[in-house]
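Q: I'm teaching a short session on how sequence maps to structure, and I want students to see two examples side by side rather than one. Could you give me a first protein with its sequence written out and its structure tokens following it? Keep the formatting plain so it prints cleanly on a handout.
A: Of course. Example one:
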Amino acid sequence: MAVLPAIALLCAAGTSQGQTPPSEVINNQIQLGDVFSTQVLNVVEVTDGVGAETSATGNNLVGATEGADLNITSNQTMAGSTIASTVANVTTGMGASSQINTSAIGNALEAGTTQGTMVGVYTQIATAAPNVTATGMLEAETAEGGDIGMATTAAANTVSLGLTNASAGVLVNQTSSASVLADGGSVVQYVSGTADVSGMASGNSMSLVGTDSSAARAIVFQSNTAALTQASQFTAYGNVQTASTSATASGNVAATTNEGALLDLTSTQFNQSYVRAQAEGSAYEFGEGAATAYGVGNSVLAGNTGEAVVLENVQLNTGGGVEATATFAGTNGYDGYARATAVGNDVTGYACATCYGQMTIGSRQTNNADVGASATTNIGAGRTVNSTSTAVGNNASFYVTRPGS
């Protein structure tokens, strides 16, 4: 049903270079086997820090131009599992600053242009047979460290587009039946600085960022029929100054932002997957401890710090439901937080007030699944306890605002 509008959109985008023909990319990728990457670090003591990067990707495409037009037609199919795993075992010391990143992606595409026009048709398919799993673990129950960062990311399909003083007309078609899991956490005896542990899982994800007087038109179709889309993170500390444990799980995400004359987005999202976000953090002694869980079936953002936003949005969330649970437990400390948010369908649109911004919005949301949020905070002795739990079936926010406000 999106074929005719897509053709009109792509033709309307034109070319910025006039007589210079655009660069053409025709990409076809099919991955039938499993793709896996594992890493184990066994450390007694280091002074500067522990660093680990583990990634597994089924199909990957990167395309970019500067001062030239770009046309991309891409078809990516992932029929195997994508698995990434990191385990860091530390006995005594982690050093001043440590970062551990783990990423598993089924299909990935990144494209952009500077001072050009980008036209694209991007199709990504993740079949039902495989799964996409990222696991990141830090085992340091007798060790100490300064600052610790851990990011664990899993996604079946991702498209990332960038524009700088440029224009784009794109069609994005993402379908996934692959279960997605971003799981892990940390156990550390003593953290003198900040411990930031996060997990992010998504079935289909599309982002577009336009800067420096850009313009974009995009048609996005996303369907997630997987059994499970889950982000789960668990942390435990003996003594920590600042601890943040977060989990974000999304069935479908289309996030578009722009600085320029026009942002035009037509988005259709269907989620049937059970979406679960779970964040659990604990510390015996703590300065500040927070556990944050956010789960959403379908999410759309269309924001322009320029003149015009045009948005046509259709969202249907059904099937397994959306659940977010956040728990923080501390024995002795200062400030403890637990925040859980679960949303069936969420859409946000905004334009720039100081640019005489105008919005044209058509939105239809239907939620036919349970949505639940739960936050628990257990504090023995402390200064502040702040807990929030929010569940919303359908949420829509549209506004004209001043940049930076």
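Q: Perfect. Now a second example for contrast.
A: Example two:
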Amino acid sequence: MGPSPDVIRQRIAELCADNRCTYATLSRLLGRQDGYIARHIREAVPYELAIADRDKLARFFGIPGQHLGAPARMDDRRAFAERRRYKPNYRTVLRRAT
């Protein structure tokens, strides 16, 4: 199981303080009213953010989704695996312009 909603609220508050962003900025990012995140953190309303909202916040802060209780993003894992398998081939064929 992931972290409890109380822990997630604390982490969001810490990330906001560390990155010097306002709660209103995060609320706008989620497409909500300006006081949505502030009310969520201070009054626990709503008690738990939706998974999609937590995923957006994790992407915004550049942290893994699991830190905010969102599932691991398959596209991130897939991209990492592709980068490890991909070996660039820098040989190019030069052709004469005619």
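Q: What should students look for in example two?
A: Point them to this: The helical segments are 5-19, 23-29, 36-43, 51-61, 74-85. Also worth mentioning: DSSP finds five helices and no strands in the chain.
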